[in-house]
TrEMBL record:
Protein name stated in the entry: Pyoverdine sidechain peptide synthetase IV, D-Asp-L-Ser component
Gene Ontology terms describing biological process: amino acid activation for nonribosomal peptide biosynthetic process; enterobactin biosynthetic process
High-level lineage: Bacteria, Pseudomonadati, Pseudomonadota, Gammaproteobacteria, Pseudomonadales
Signal sequence interval, chain numbering: none
Ranges for domain Carrier: 88-163
InterPro entries from the UniProt entry: AB_hydrolase_fold, ACP-like_sf, AMP-bd_C, AMP-bd_C_sf, PP-bd_ACP, TesA-like, Thioesterase
Amino acid sequence: GVREANVIDIDGPSGKQLVAYLVRTDAAQDSDALRETLKTHLKAHVPDYMVPTYFVFIDVMPLTANGKLDRRALPKPDVARSQQGHVAPRTEFEQRLAALWEQVLQVERVGLNDNFFALGGHSLLAVSLAGRIRETFDVSIKLHDFLLMQTLGELADFMRTNEAKVKSAGIVMNANRSDNAPLFCLPPGGGGTYSYYPLAGQLSDSRPVYGLVNKAYVVPGWFDTSWQEMVDYYVKQIRMTQSHGPYNLLGWSMGGALAIEVAHVLEREGDTVSFLGLVDTQLPASVGMEWVEEAPEVTTQKQGENYYRSLIKSLQAFVPGLQEASIVGLIETARQSLSSEGEVIDWVVDHVALEAGMNADNLRSIFQDIAVQDEIETG
């Protein structure tokens, strides 16, 4: 047992850490076994951030001349002790995960057998680490899962073997948890799915409803490099929740164009789409209900106006604080000296990217994607 104990806080690499200094009732007692017994008891009765990071056994408590605890005479905890039997990360995946641990815990190295909490981690730091894992690997780790997989190796194995379970498959939009085939709602132009909540509420007694948001909502700084990449991402998200058809899909505005493309992919892969709902979506000419002998010719001026609208939409969506009037002004300035719409658009994109400190090629790719989406919607 313990005859005397003092707990103090020290400045650790990841912030304040608690150290318990203990004097055993029997000096011959196994300190490792007693340490684990004390940890287990404390974890059952206090929050994890109140459990000392280190348990240091000493023969006697050092005291000052006034009879108070002499903190300066206390031995420093042996940090290296918690990393005995170091096993270096083997794969690139493990090395990237270890780097995140090192950043959060502010330690020089982390091995596969190292325990997050033994290195000074606690639930608040675990939340921080989970956020970095989400940004780096596009994987969502619940705190409960993290508490069960406390070593780097355990967490790496869990992330690899349970990838489909850990990744977010979309936003659950109602309380229905039945086995009925869910309805998947594809996002309109803004990338969010808030507009589907009223419908999801109406379907609470019928079936689950999932809202699929643009990947940029999940991975900060993400840019879709192509329309097909966006479609494939939504297909993957849908299959994480429902591995096989028949599928129910719904899309409003641009979400309808996405729903059509997602349906095509699912059916090409051998699955069935039993419901495809389009709300206020302009159908592409290729799926129109009437045979069109010859589509009316679109004037060059009209095409240019459409491109400029797409340019304004894309720049406002991805450049914070940029006003439509500013973009229109740049377009008009460029048109005074440049002859083609392509040159005007390139000049405007380069100018905005330079002012915003962004990559012009990324902005140009976003514009091209949105221009294609707008063309699909307008037929």
